[in-house]
Amino acid sequence: GGNQIMTRRLTGGKWSPVETAGDKPGDIFVVKMGRDKRGREWLIWSEQIEGNFDLYGKYREGGGWSRRERLTTAPQPDMEHALASDAAGNLWVVWQGFRDGKSSIFARRYDGSSWSAEEKVSTSPANDWAPAIAADGSGAVYVAWDSYDKGNYDVLMRRWSGGKWGEVVPVADTPK
C-alpha cells in the first residue's frame, strides 16, 4: 500500500520500539533528519501526492510527532533534498525542484518558528541536480550542486552569509 516513515530512538544504549512517524502509507522518496534551534528533530521527505512530488516535514516534540507540514507547492517535482543546521541553529533544506520543465536548486531555512520563503540558489538556464549543504561555525552556509550549464557535468557552489547569497563558484569545472 506504500511506504511509511519509521523511527527508533537510542537512549542509554537501548533502542526504543519502532514508531510510525508518517501519517499513512504513501509514495515517499528519501527521508532526511535534522535539528532546529529549539532542539527538535525534524523529518523531511519528498512524497508524491496526486501525481506530483513535494517536500513535507514534521518535528518531534513532547513525545510525539507534529502534524505534517507541506514545504513546497510547485506543480512540478521537488526532491533530492539535503539538510543542515547553521551556527545560529537555523535548519536549512535545499532541494532539486522543477520549474517550467527545468531543474534548479532551491533553499529554505527554519528559524525555530517559521520557514523562510523559497529561494532559488542555482542561476544557470540549464538543469541543476543533487544539492549538498554544509554550514561553518561563523554562520555561513554552503550549497553545492551538479550543473549542466556548459553542456557537461560540473560542480558549482554558492555561499550564504550576512543574509544574502554570494556569487556562484566553480568547484569542478572542466570540459570533461
Q: What this model shows, in words?
A:
- The protein has strands at 6-7, 10-11, 14-15, 19-20, 27-35, 41-49, 52-61, 64-65, 69-70, 78-85, 91-99, 102-110, 119-120, 128-135, 141-147, 154-161, 164-165, 169-172.
- The protein is mainly beta.
- It is globular and about 50 Å long.
- A hairpin with a 5-residue loop joins strand 14 (128-135) and strand 15 (141-147).
- The model has no long low-confidence stretch (mean pLDDT 95).
- The N and C termini lie far apart (43 Å).
Q: Residue share in helices?
A: under 10%
Give the CA-based shape. Answer: globular
Strand content: over 45%
* Main beta sheet: 5 strands, antiparallel
The Cα radius of gyration reads: 17 Å
**Which residue ranges are poorly predicted, with pLDDT under 50 across at least 5 consecutive positions?**
none
Could you tell me the number of beta strands? 18
Order of helices and strands: EEEEEEEEEEEEEEEEEE
Structural class: mainly beta
- Please count the helical segments: 0
Cα(first) to Cα(last) distance is 43 Å
Mean pLDDT: 95
How do the helices and strands line up, and which of them pair or pack?
Elements: E1 6-7, E2 10-11, E3 14-15, E4 19-20, E5 27-35, E6 41-49, E7 52-61, E8 64-65, E9 69-70, E10 78-85, E11 91-99, E12 102-110, E13 119-120, E14 128-135, E15 141-147, E16 154-161, E17 164-165, E18 169-172
Antiparallel strand pairs: 1-4, 2-3, 5-6, 6-7, 7-8, 7-9, 10-11, 11-12, 12-13, 14-15, 15-16, 16-17, 16-18
